[in-house]
Amino acid sequence: MVDPITVSTGAAAAAYLSKDGVAKLLGPTADYLGGELKSLVEKSQKNLGAIFKSATSKAGDKLSEPGVVNARVLKHVIDEGRFTEEALFAEYFGGVLASARTPDGVDDRGVYYAQIVQSMSVYQLRMHYLFYYLMWNLAKGRQLDLNSYVDRCKLELVLPARVYERTFGVVDGRKEMSFIVHGLSGLSREDLIEESWQFDNPKVLKASHIEVDSHAFCVAPTIAGIELFIWAHGMGEQGLRAFLDPQLVEKDELGIEFKELARFKTQMETQLTGRGI
After folding, report:
1. C-alpha 233 chain-centroid distance
2. 50 within 8 A of 87, measured Cβ to Cβ
3. Cα separation, 78 vs 51, whole angstroms
4. According to the model, what pLDDT value does residue 20 have?
5. CA-based nearest residue to 209, from 198, 220, 225, 221
6. How far apart are CA 214 and CA 107, in angstroms?
7. Is 244 strand, coil or helix?
8. What are 239-265's pLDDT values in tens digits?
9. pLDDT confidence tier of residue 109, bands split at 50, 70 and 90
10. Is the pLDDT of residue 28 over 80?
11. Does residue 157 contact residue 218 with C-beta atoms inside 8 Å?
12. How far, in Å, CA of 237 to CA of 99, rounded?
């Protein structure tokens, strides 16, 4: 059944869209507000379909066992997910749904993770995926206690800027800086990376005891950042240990270029920067 609030909102918006310039301002997004209600429903169903497809895939063998998704988690995912066309959002929301499927449906932690994803811009979400995929790729199979600050410091990532640039097709580095700062500051503000992040040239980074030969990111993980990545891959109920599971990620959703250039800080760099001690 169509939400009556959606109907009335769509009707009101349609009146404004008939005015000169408004439809031009909104572009294709106007389809969500005006025109035929059928178009709105079709777009929403398509977006939710992508989320449920992702959730089903990530739930895997859990679907053969009795279970239910907490209703509050489902509501948050549907409320935002129906307006989300970006594929990576579908993967994150789908993973949260899969993680939220439990025998009794009481576990509502997915509400928190759904709200975090809902609050993020696509630039922040892509950056979160980039950093944590590379951390996982380097750390998978290792024996670490990620509840420990010392062991989390062992996952501090040093990432040459060219990995970011090639992955996201950056043409103008100067223009991209506003998106990079937006992403880094946003992730830090939400405690998805440590606030000690750096993105700078070799001279500045070497002064901070980090040996690089080009612009680079230096980013340390947080518990919240690791958990979000785990929940986005449908294994939230397993806790932090799931991040070290070689089977956590089946597919690189970004098609990350030059993965081999990513590395963790060396033991010497960690000691000189005073982290993990």
Report:
1. 10
2. yes
3. 9
4. 46
5. 198
6. 45
7. helix
8. 999 999 999 999 999 999 999 999 999
9. very high
10. no
11. yes
12. 6
**Which pair of structure tokens corresponds to residue 147?**
């509840």
Which sequence spans correspond to the domains of the chain? 36-119, 122-272
CA–CA distance, 92 with 202 (Å, rounded to integer): 34
CA 255 remoteness from chain centre: 15
Report the candidate in 61, 11, 3, 56 with the shortest Cα–Cα distance to residue 34: 11
Q: Quick check: 47 and 84 in contact, CB under 8 A?
A: yes
Q: Residue 67: phi, psi to the nearest 5?
A: -175, 170
| Residue 170 pLDDT | 94
Q: Is-contact 262 138, C-beta < 8 A? A: yes
Residue 141 φ/ψ region, left for φ over 0, alpha for ψ in the -120 to 50 degree band, beta for the rest? left
Structure tokens at 36: 């035929």
Instruction: Match 């950093």 to its residue by tokens.
Output: 131
256: its two tokens: 């990350």
- Give me the residue label for tokens 């970006």: 86
3-state helix vs strand vs coil in the chain, percent to 5: 60, 5, 35
